[in-house]
Amino acid sequence: MLTCRDATRLASEALDRRLTLRERVGLNVHLALCGLCRRYAAQIDFVRRAVARLAARSGDLGAGLSAVGRDRIRRRLTDGRVVDNQKPTGD
Amino acid sequence: MGGVPSRGETTTMSSELATDPVAWVDRHGDALYRFAVLRVRDRTVAEDLVQETLLAALQARDTPAVVANERAWLLGILRHKVFDHFRRVSRDRTPADPPTGDEHDGDDDFDERGRWAAPPARWSSPEHALEQEEFLNALDACMDELPARQRHTFVLRELDGIASDDLAEALGTSRNNVFVLLSRARQHLRDCLELHWFGR
């Protein structure tokens, strides 16, 4: 019988790889008998969905390049276009 | 932050401007920045990666005609830059930060016999939380609290869908350690959400 530590670890790995038949059976037997591990497995699955939601939202946020960063990048692109592959001089 | 100037409308005057790299900064700079900062969580590093991306795109500009979707093309380049960044920082580790450091099993939620010592609490209406801005802000803050190596691994896995074999290779560690890092990251985030959101 898996310990709860083993079961939670396997529940996480199930999100990253295909478990072997033996692992799947072991995990399912444990989850059938252990409400806390069932809850944990559902919660880390929720964490995955929440992070996906966070990523989807970040595209809509107003945050962006700083004014300084924007200018710096513009300058570097202009230099890069003129000088092409040469490295810009120090000053 | 502060002092963000109003950018107004981006002026694209004619189709020949469409391949002007300097115009990329106005058209895509903020979107690229948001993509990068979500992953690296550092303003300066994110801006550097955006710059690297646009410079790389500039070098590759012999093929502008085939770029159907400029934004997607640039994001593809940036995705690689982010991946290389994490590869670089994880290989630059000093001996003070041993590769097995994250594997240590002492600080988890279980007792010495592998039973729950800090069992997970029941969460009320998590699906409802997903719709709330404040909840996503709390999750964002929890991501900041992850140990760096766990966060890098987790970000590449969850945001970019990198397979565990590729993660192990890029981060210079074993596949098994990748699973440990991911499991730890999920556990940390779960605990953090319970502490700062569901347990309030």
Topology diagram in text:
The complex is a heterodimer of chains A (91) and B (200).
Chain A: H1 4-13, H2 21-33, H3 35-58, H4 67-83
Helix pairs in contact in A: 1-2, 1-3, 2-3
Chain B: H1 21-40, H2 43-59, H3 70-91, H4 126-129, H5 133-145, H6 148-158, H7 164-171, H8 175-198
Helix pairs in contact in B: 1-2, 1-3, 2-3, 5-8, 6-8, 7-8
- How large, in whole angstroms, is the Cα Rg of chain B? 20 Å
Proportion in β-strands of chain A? under 5%
Major sheet description of chain B: none
State the low-pLDDT regions of chain A, or none. Answer: 84-91
Kindly estimate the percentage of residues of chain B that lie in beta strands according to DSSP.
Answer: under 5%
Sequence stretches where pLDDT stays below 50 over 5 or more residues of chain B: 1-18, 99-105
Q: How many distinct beta strands of chain B?
A: 0
What does this structure look like?
The complex is a heterodimer of chains A (91) and B (200). Chain A is mainly alpha-helical and 91 residues long. Chain A is 70% helix and 0% strand. Chain A is built from four helices and no strands. Chain A is elongated, with a radius of gyration of 25 Å. Mean pLDDT of chain A is 88; it is low at 84-91. Chain B is mainly α. In chain B, helix 1 (21-40) packs across helix 2. Chain B is globular. Classes of the chains: A mainly alpha (91), B mainly alpha (200).
Q: Outline of this structure?
A:
The complex is a heterodimer of chains A (91) and B (200). In chain A, helix 1 (4-13) packs parallel to helix 3.
